[in-house]
Write a structure and sequence with these properties.
Elements lengths: L2 E9 L7 E9 L5 H11 L20 E4 L2 E4 L8 E6 L6 E3 L2 E2 L9
């Protein structure tokens, strides 16, 4: 049975330029928030920016973001029926949409 998650996503490039966009995402039980974001980018809005490197391994830490105010890994957090608010990490420099600067300063080019 297909369910629907309503993802409310913070978009933009800086604190002054952010806005909210909402997406209805069909899913099967067990799918991750990362699966939902990938569905949005494939089927609805290819400009949505988020970072990931692995899927369901929780090893790379690149898909960290806020879900309903809590820090999560999008690859391991499951989609649920109803509204889910997805935001970039609050304590990191925002690059665009859900992408924040995660590398330590001495490792940046």
């Amino acid at each position: 049975m297909t369910q629907t998650a309503h993802l409310v996503v913070t978009r933009g490039t800086s604190g002054d330029d952010t806005h909210i966009e909402s997406y209805d995402v069909p899913f099967e039980p067990g799918q991750s928030v990362l699966d939902g974001l990938r569905w949005i980018r494939t089927h609805h809005d290819p400009s949505l920016a988020f970072r990931f490197s692995c899927i369901s391994a929780n090893a790379c830490k690149e898909c960290m973001m806020l879900l309903d105010g809590k820090v999560i890994y999008a690859c391991t957090e499951r989609l649920t029926d109803g509204e889910m608010r997805v935001e970039p990490l609050a304590n990191k420099t925002l690059i665009r949409d859900l992408v924040t600067e995660i590398a330590p300063p001495d490792e940046r080019l």
